[in-house]
Write a structure and sequence with these properties.
The structure holds 2 protein chains of 2 kinds. Chain A is an alpha/beta fold. Chain A contains 6 helices and 8 strands; from the N terminus they run ααβαβαβαβαββββ. In chain A, 29% of the residues lie in helices and 26% in strands. The termini of chain B are far apart. Among the domains of chain B are: 244-323 and 332-354, Dna Ligase, domain 1, CATH 3.30.1490.100; 384-416, no CATH class; 430-528, no CATH class. Classes of the chains: A alpha/beta, B alpha+beta.
Chain lengths: 222, 529
């Protein structure tokens, strides 16, 4: 805390005063700085420019591929990922997006204790993808949110979640490569409706582009 | 060695040990002609086979001509040694200081045993008793040297299984034996060509001449033939007993009771291993219930077993496998009270490779702890690690291993194989664990079919994601489609053969599907979403 504001060279404040000051305030308040956010694939950079914020819940509706693509970013950087309550999770597709299977843990059937299992997973895994619970009471959701923020884990919910940082809803798929009796599915384009902190917009994302081997190219916010 | 004190040796020989071991391991049936085959020749055969004319060293084909009902199994030195271990333990109980010459033949220093049992005959009798209690045949010889004792044991018969040569008579006993008994084929052949046919003739040669003509090996053989074997019995150190057995009297039929009772023994089990400088990385848990049924299971561990892990494994083994959809017969669980739990270290490793770092092992350790906790909450099969395996059907290609168990090595090998007919990239994101029944209809509302040559009879027009409603179910138009892609495998295997056609379709709602047609029924294998 010895770093006091007046010690800053005056030039740095002037260059981009708002941003620098914001970062400094965050630092002094002990908040997690931007560089701690988890990276996303380049295809999704336009949708989530800041990456995945630790402690936040993202609600994904209508696409498993989108969930896999979101897992792939942190996984490529060496993070462990968990998938809960999705027995039909296609691991080959996940591997195709760049999810490292040796750092992936599946709990296909959490049974009745959705909350407890999810909390136990989020305690140790930085990114968890989970099916939506049959019923999430706002109080329970808030408790889980607090726990996630404390651990700095990201939760991706496949379905509706009451208190999410962002809602990514797929409003349509566009497929290429298939004709009337010939060809094969080759490319997928998703039309996304993104509600990020209140602001809503649409985006078109091409998920079919294979992931390059070099993962260092995606370092975000560093 | 004339006149002086001789070290008396007892040899215990278990005839046809490879065969006995194979029978003990249930690899050969009892009471039928049987033989153990090594390099295409008979290495050991049973008395029934011998009666039919099968002898050691016979070619397999020849042996089978002589005895057409001959049951055979390949020789396995490991099996011989493994099955010999309980026999050895029983021998060591009667008389310590046993040296294993090879599985099925061992030498014992007889002095202590003779003093304890009163005479060498009684000591030999005690060894025969030990073998008898295990149900194996044994022959015992006592002599002045290891070689003479072995020859004495071999020259006994089934009815008189014990031969004790009085001190200083071994040389005379060995004299009529042929030179082949030395088990040095080159020397034996040379001696025979020199006109020396028996060990007695060989011992007549002066030692200096033997050294000059045959060298050090000849001198050794000369001493052996004279009953003055320089070899001394080097008793083995009995291996430390690391397994642990817990008996419950009366039997327990509640998992939590058993787990509680096991807490202390499991701690002692791990501590005993640690005292020996070992950690257990693979654990075998054997459960015996009061109806006499024994169930065994081998458990792996990514690191090494602690006391809590051991208790967890026992608990999982006792738990009914409710998660297993095929349950029913293999439901597991406790059907009758458990009377005994055995903890057997399947694989141990030096503790030096498993030390804990001063500040812990970082993230991985935390993850392991968290997931183990989850496993003790939900059961072992609930936390899984995925791997891509080989196969044509997508759900076969997904291999899920419980956290902590090693991923089977074949998986990577299988996955690397070409698998013609596999789905081109991108792979579907949702792969149904079991195919979902659907309907694919043509323009007239009839299910799409193919003829026996694999040609499509009518193009698909409508798609119903839920087949339950029949042709009245909500329909979606088929926007784009491709197929049929034939999927044929294992036509020779009744249980696993597959004769299906694959289709990819995009329906009117923009969803893409991978469909399977088997016979005249449609299934959704996977969804691209």
């Amino acid at each position: 805390m010895s770093e006091a504001l007046p010690d800053l060279p005056p030039g740095s404040l002037r260059s981009s005063p708002g941003e620098d000051l914001q970062a400094k305030i965050h630092l002094l308040q002990g908040r997690r700085a931007r560089e701690h956010s988890l990276p996303v694939l380049p295809a999704l950079k336009a949708v989530l420019p800041g990456g995945l914020r630790p402690g936040a819940v993202y609600s994904l509706q209508g696409s498993m591929s989108l969930a896999m693509a979101l897992l792939a970013g942190p996984s490529l950087q060496g993070a462990w990922c968990g998938v809960m309550g999705l027995p039909d999770f296609g691991i080959e597709a996940a591997a195709g997006f760049g999810v490292a299977l040796d750092r992936l843990v599946l709990v296909p059937d959490p049974g009745e204790r959705w909350m407890q299992v999810l909390a136990a997973m989020a305690d140790v895994l930085p990114v968890v993808l989970a099916c939506a619970p049959s019923r999430a009471a706002p109080a329970e959701a808030a408790r889980l949110g607090a726990r996630l923020r404390e651990r700095g884990s990201v939760l991706l919910v496949a379905g509706h979640w009451p208190q999410s940082e962002a809602v990514l809803r797929v409003s349509g798929h566009e497929w290429e490569g298939l004709g009337q009796g010939y060809g094969h599915l080759a490319r997928q384009e998703l039309r996304l409706e993104v509600a990020l902190r209140g602001a809503s917009r649409t985006a078109v994302v091409d998920l079919a582009g294979r992931v390059p081997e070099d993962s260092s190219a995606y370092r975000i916010g560093a | 060695m004339s006149g002086g004190a001789v070290s008396r040796v007892m040899a215990a020989w278990f005839p046809d040990w490879p065969l006995v071991a194979a029978r003990l391991a249930d690899e050969l049936p009892a009471d039928v002609p049987a033989a153990v085959i090594s390099q295409g020749r008979v290495a050991a055969c049973s008395a029934e086979a011998r009666a039919e004319g099968v002898v050691r060293g016979l070619r397999l084909r020849e042996a089978q001509t002589r005895c057409t009902s001959l049951a055979v199994c390949p020789a396995d030195p490991l099996r011989d040694a493994r099955e010999f271990e309980p026999v050895l333990a029983s021998l060591e109980e009667r008389s310590p200081g046993v040296e294993v010459l090879r599985p099925g033949l061992c030498a014992v220093r007889v002095r202590g045993a003779a003093r304890y049992y009163g005479s060498e005959e009684s000591a030999g009798g005690a060894v025969l008793d030990a073998a008898d209690s295990l149900g194996v045949e044994a022959r015992v010889g006592v002599a002045d040297s290891v070689f003479a004792a072995v020859q004495a044991a071999r020259s006994t018969t089934e009815s008189v299984a014990l031969l004790v040569l009085p001190p200083h008579t071994s040389r005379d006993f060995l004299a009529p034996f042929p030179v082949e008994a030395l088990e040095q084929p080159k020397l034996a052949s040379l001696l025979k060509r020199l006109g020396i046919h028996t060990l007695g003739d060989f011992t007549q040669l002066p030692l200096s001449d033997v050294r000059a003509r045959f060298g050090a090996a000849g001198v050794l053989a000369h001493a052996m033939a004279g009953g003055e074997d320089p070899k001394v019995v080097v008793p083995r150190v009995p291996p430390r007993k690391l397994d642990r057995q817990v008996d419950f009297e009366p039997g327990l039929d509640r998992i939590d009771q058993i787990a509680f009772q096991l807490r202390a023994p499991a701690g002692e089990f791990v501590a005993a291993l640690q005292d020996a400088g070992l950690v257990c990385t693979e654990l075998k848990v054997a459960l015996l219930d009061d109806s006499g049924i024994r169930s065994e299971r081998l458990w792996g561990h990514p690191r090494h077993f602690t006391a809590n892990d051991v208790v967890d494994r026992v608990r999982w083994q006792l738990q009914p496998r409710s998660a297993d959809p095929s349950g029913g017969l293999n439901a597991g669980g406790i059907t009758s009270a458990i009377v005994r739990v055995e903890l057997i270290p399947g694989r141990v490793d030096s503790i030096t490779g498993h030390g804990q770092a001063l500040f812990g092992e970082g993230a991985e350790e935390k993850i392991h702890h968290g997931l183990s906790r989850l496993q003790s909450m939900l059961g072992q099969e609930a936390v899984l690690v995925p791997a891509v395996s080989g196969g044509r059907v997508l759900s076969e290609r997904r291999l899920l291993t419980p956290w902590g168990d090693p991923v089977p090595r074949e998986a990577a090998v299988q996955a690397a194989r070409p698998w013609p007919g596999s789905i081109p990239d991108p792979q579907p994101a949702t792969v149904f664990t079991s195919p979902v029944p659907v309907l694919l209809l043509d323009a007239a509302g009839e299910p799409v079919r193919i003829d026996e040559r694999g040609t499509l009879l009518s193009p698909p027009h409508w798609f119903c994601p839920e087949a339950a409603g029949g042709s009245a179910a909500p329909r979606r138009a088929v926007a784009e489609w491709t197929g049929p892609w034939p999927l044929r495998q294992r036509w020779w295997d009744e249980g696993r053969r597959r004769h299906a056609e694959r289709f990819q379709i995009v329906d009117g709602d923009g969803d893409a599907w991978l469909l399977l047609l088997t016979g005249d029924r449609w299934w959704a294998e996977a969804r691209y979403d």
